[in-house]
Amino acid sequence: MKLLSFNLKTFILLLSSLLIVSCNDDDTPITMEENNTVFNELLGTWLIQESTINGTPVNSESFNCLKTSNINFTANKYELNYNKKGTGAFAAGCAVTQQYSGTYEVDKEGKVDLNSNEGLTAILKEGKLIVTTVDGTTKQEDVFINEKDIVSNVLDTDNSTTTGGEVTTPPVETQEFKDLKNKLQGKWGLNSFEINGEQLMLSSCRLESILEFKNNNNEIFILQKKATFTQGDLRKYGIGIGGVGIQTVQVTKSFANGDNKDKVIVDSNASCKFVKESTRIFEHVNGNVLKIKTRNIEFKLVDDTTIELTFKNLDTNTEGKQIYKKL
Asked: What is the mean pLDDT of residues 57-83?
């Protein structure tokens, strides 16, 4: 079967009825500009987060191989790379590699035609990409999440076990903690980023992401920038959407939850279309290691010019590492 190519004009017509409803800081309704700007939801790299075979979740050993699988979409083409556990003489490692590539087409329901002739289809659903492969009587379904969503998901997930109403007394700060905070003062720029051991290609927008420490307190300011945004971004921050693409939108929303503060700016006309500013409280672990309070994020002052930030996202089965350099 000859695969159909992605047609931007078709996409625009399919999405002409899209409605975006949200509010900004003063609850003023956001209006959609009437033009032909369409954002392709699929663009970028998607990482696997769960997998089932004939409806049964794969075991942890098999998923340890699968978790480095990914699918990448450009404007016209896709490439899907599977890493799987071997069998027989190759059972000890992740010896099986499967690759699919070609052009693709998306319909108004979010169904993605990758290579249905080889039993390969996908669907966009609630910001996730569900890829189905059929081989005889074996049906494998893999759920992927766009890598753009992963870090902001970690910051938004509260891993605290504290029940409501409890008041805790912060520990007395050691001199070691005070000295470490003094060394952290200033801005630190993102230098590299890996997820599940794989290095990500950083866009010019992503490279504008920073950590900032100031006033010698226990707050860390985190600026994240992305060239594009996803339906997952909009849904997470209460911005109503429909269809599988997004027309022009400009939204600013601010949130506060105790010590945590966030501001999200979505502007499809900007060069960096998604900006998130976050303030988080951090705590001392030991030595040069600190952690974000109630989050699965740690960061370490490696030397006077380098911070290593590591995170675990239990919701998406991902682990990551970022390196920041002093600006």
From this structure: 85
